[in-house]
Give the backbone structure.
Amino acid sequence: MTEETPRGMILVVNGPNLNLLGTREPEKYGTATLADVERLCAEAAAAHGLEVHCVQSNHEGDLLDAIHEARTTALGIVINAGAFTHTSVAIRDAISAVQLPAVEVHITNVHAREPFRHHSYLSDISKAVIAGAGVLGYRFAVEYLADLTEARKATVA
Ligand code: CA2
């Protein structure tokens, strides 16, 4: 079987505590692990001739560095910033600065949870927001970005 060289890369960012996926609170976050999520993203990307670079960190600065590095290497960003969604102007500024299409993902429906989760520093600078679809939201986000970049390529060709 021959494998094509990927035509581009999508950065998948997961923020604090998401390394615990599948090990705690399954009633809230499901049973899929972070490794499962990263595999799901890789498979969705591969179906569109793309690859993913996956980063998870509990440290805000590491997330900023990963976003900055993506500036020249990624076609887009899928980001579940976890609790930083509701607190971090720095992550917002990093996403704005790199000028890449971003999709904000939440496993849970944050709007059906505590009021402090209703505000996001990322939503208004994101191309799309997906919340409450479980880990499937990551797949939808990758597919959306694949579609967007294909459409963009078609318009500049
Ligand atoms: O619903 C989401 O994806 C969230 O981004 C998850 C964050 C939360 O702070 C956001 O408001 C919504 C929390 C991530 C915690 O992940 C865990 C996973 C398994 C077990 C414990 C925590």
